[in-house]
Amino acid sequence: MKTLLARTLTGILYLFVVGFAFFFSPSALISVFSLFLVIALFEYIHLVQKFPVLKNKMQRITLQLLLPIVWIIFPVALLIYWCIILNSTNIMVALFVVLCMNDTLAYVFGSLFGKHKIYPKISPKKSWEGFFGGLIVTIIAACFLIHIPYFQSDVFTNPYIWMGFAFVVIIAGTFGDFAESTIKRFAQQKDSGSILPGHGGILDRIDSMLFAVPIGFIYWGIAGI
């Protein structure tokens, strides 16, 4: 019960901070996500330090330099650029809504019907039933975003584009989740950190976003052609 309460309260606080970043001001968005970036990098370094010793120089360079730049720094920088420079905060908020809705629904469907695990060695709690349940319901729900004034866009002009956006974001986010789980497995750690009681670390919360932002951005660009 205490764990559930801590997880719920922490989740509410996290959503409040993210909402504050998106809706208060550009400087708030930069500050919040820059803080997330710094914490996530520290958590990543901590995980890498738990890895077996790598004798191959290229492996060390990739793991210690290239991967954090491509996987963590670039997506966060792209998020800020997308929101502030391209003035498309509403699309980024939609991306977060899709990811949160899918995570919640996947958990519910997985808890009720989950029998077939996707990749138990890496993420033992994720099931195919949860994945498809969350995917299908979230995609259907996404088509109604066009009717909400805040989410109206010159690019996403019909429900089918919104549904496609939800699809690619969910698929990318799922790969992001498994990618971080793989790193934690190699490091033999359950969570990336402990800053968020009941959730783990910041990296545990933004892992799906780190894959979803670049893929969502590409989809947004193609849809606007």
Overview features:
mainly alpha, 7 helices, two-stranded antiparallel ribbon, 225 residues, globular
Number of distinct helices: 7
Number of domains: 1
What's the number of extended β-strand segments? 2
- Summarize the main sheet: 2 strands, antiparallel
- Tell me the distance between the termini: 50 Å
Helix content: over 70%
Shape: globular
Ranges with pLDDT <50 over ≥5 residues? none
What series of H and E elements makes up the topology?
HHHHEEHHH
Name the quaternary structure.
single chain
Strands of the largest sheet, in order across it?
Answer: 1-2
Radius of gyration: 18 Å
- Helix vs. strand class: mainly alpha
- The fraction of residues assigned to DSSP E strands is under 5%
Quick check: average pLDDT? 90
How would you describe this structure to a colleague?
With 225 residues, the chain is mostly helical. The protein has one domain (2-223). 74% of the residues lie in helices and 4% in strands. The protein has seven helices and two strands. The chain has helices spanning 2-23, 26-49, 57-85, 89-113, 128-142, 159-187, 202-223, and strands at 117-119, 123-127. It has a two-stranded antiparallel sheet with strand order 1-2. Strand 1 and strand 2 (123-127) form a beta hairpin. Helix 3 (57-85) packs across helix 7 and helix 4 crosses helix 6 (159-187). The longest helix is centred in the first third of the chain and has 29 residues, at 57-85. The radius of gyration is 18 Å and the shape is globular. The model has no long low-confidence stretch (mean pLDDT 90).
